[in-house]
Design brief:
alpha/beta; five-stranded mixed β-sheet; D-Maltodextrin-Binding Protein, domain 2; cytoplasm; magnesium; 30% strand; binds phosphoribosyl ATP; binds zinc ion; ATP-binding; elongated; nucleotide-binding
Length: 219
């Protein structure tokens, strides 16, 4: 890692990693493979990668440790609601990592929005869920869980869940069905709201132009 190079945070391993790397590759950037390391280096562009958990990407970008990041709108949105002054800016929507944050109910339930009133809802996205409920004029109790949210109704921890859905198979396997959409999400390229030094700003503009080109040709 070097301070003369632009810093970008991407997910180390998970659903966004391969496509984040693939996007950079399509933009003509060669990344030196560095198995097991927390950083990687572009060999033909002044760019370093920080390979981190997706949940940490907004923090790195907000604090300016990384000028750029690739993260899901679900993670970004939850972070931004907790730290509205963070000033992270979306530069581009990347068209991968698509999923929706949805309220799900037991399959056998005849669901109506009013059922949520006064209920308990388990989620890993408490702030996004709270905001959506407030927008709907519903008051409900949020139970925050780090994972295995879809087990909550069976365990009697909550009547409903608010969780990410892509194919819907996980919900179905747990006797649940999607009933409301809280957020549609995809991976986005983000930049810090902090000031960027001129050298990095030039590299950032160049990288952004290349990424825009990749997005346009894949549309
Ligand atoms: O280790 P790290 O913290 O970096 O990774 P993670 O385990 O927190 O995240 P990861 O790799 O699972 O997901 C990274 C990002 O991918 C998410 O923040 C979303 O932006 C996006 N994404 C896209 C998804 C899904 N699709 C998805 N289906 N993230 C999670 N899921 C999970 C969902 O939580 C549920 O458990 O998959 C299950 C549902 O999938 P279906 O197909 O059964 O509906
Ligand atoms: Zn995560």
């Amino acid at each position: 890692m070097s301070i003369d190079r632009l810093q970008m945070a991407i997910q180390k391993s998970g659903r966004l990693s391969d496509q984040s790397r693939g996007l950079l590759k399509s933009a003509g950037i060669k990344i030196q493979a560095n198995k097991g390391q927390l950083t990687a280096r572009a060999t033909n562009f002044p760019l370093d990668l920080m390979l981190v958990r997706d949940d940490d990407i907004p923090t790195f970008v907000a604090d300016g440790v990384c000028e750029l990041g690739i993260v899901g709108e679900n993670v970004l949105g939850e972070y931004a609601l907790g730290r509205p002054e963070a000033g992270i800016e979306i530069l581009a929507r990347l068209g991968f990592g698509r999923c929706s944050l949805k309220i799900a109910a037991p399959q056998e339930e005849e669901f109506d929005l009013s059922n949520l009133e006064g209920s308990r809802i388990a989620t890993s996205y408490p702030l996004l869920t709270k905001k959506w409920l407030a927008d709907q004029g519903i008051s409900a109790e949020i139970v925050t869980m780090r994972g295995a949210v879809e087990l909550a109704p069976r365990l009697g921890i909550a009547s409903y869940i608010c969780d990410l859905v892509s194919t819907g198979q996980t919900l179905e396997a747990n006797g649940l069905k999607p009933v409301q959409t809280v957020l549609e999400s995809e991976a986005v390229l983000v930049r810090t709201g902090r000031e960027i030094v001129p050298d990095h700003a030039a590299a950032l503009d160049q990288l952004k132009t290349r990424i825009d080109g990749v997005i346009q040709t894949s549309e």
